[in-house]
Amino acid sequence: MFDFKIFFTVLGTVFVSELGDKTQVATFLFASTKKGAALSVFLGSATALVLSSGLAVLGANFLGRYLSPSVLNSLAGVGFIIIGVWILINRG
């Protein structure tokens, strides 16, 4: 069954989190430097986002069979902390 609440929550969260990230900047640069290629740049970047999101959903679906939501939330939190520390250490 299609859940509109989940759909709009994910849509809003992903949309806001993607604003101004490296992917958007790269897409902007491709579109601005490749004259007449706006449609190709859009379709390429949109396809990449769909494929990467698909991999995330498949991976989460697989892990969700074996791990409880609280374990997954903890793993995600630890993962973000590790990434944050790594960025702080390597920011130079």
Question: What can you tell me about this protein's structure?
Answer:
It is built from four helices and no strands. With 92 residues, the protein is mainly alpha-helical. The protein has a domain at 4-67. The radius of gyration is 17 Å and the shape is extended. The mean pLDDT is 90.
Q: Structural class, judged by helices and strands?
A: mainly alpha
Ends: how far apart?
48 Å
Gyration radius, rounded: 17 Å
Give the percentage of residues in beta strands. Answer: under 5%
Q: How many strands, what sense, and barrel or not for the largest sheet?
A: none
Percentage of residues assigned to helices: over 70%
Shape summary: extended
The low-pLDDT segments are: none
Give the overall average pLDDT: 90
What is the element string, with H for helices and E for strands? HHHH
Task: Give me the count of strands.
Answer: 0
The DSSP helix count reads: 4
Task: Give structural attributes.
single chain; 92 residues; mainly alpha; 84% helix; extended
In brief:
This protein has 92 residues and is mainly α.
Strand and helix layout:
Layout: H1 4-18, H2 22-33, H3 38-66, H4 69-89
Helix pairs in contact: 2-3
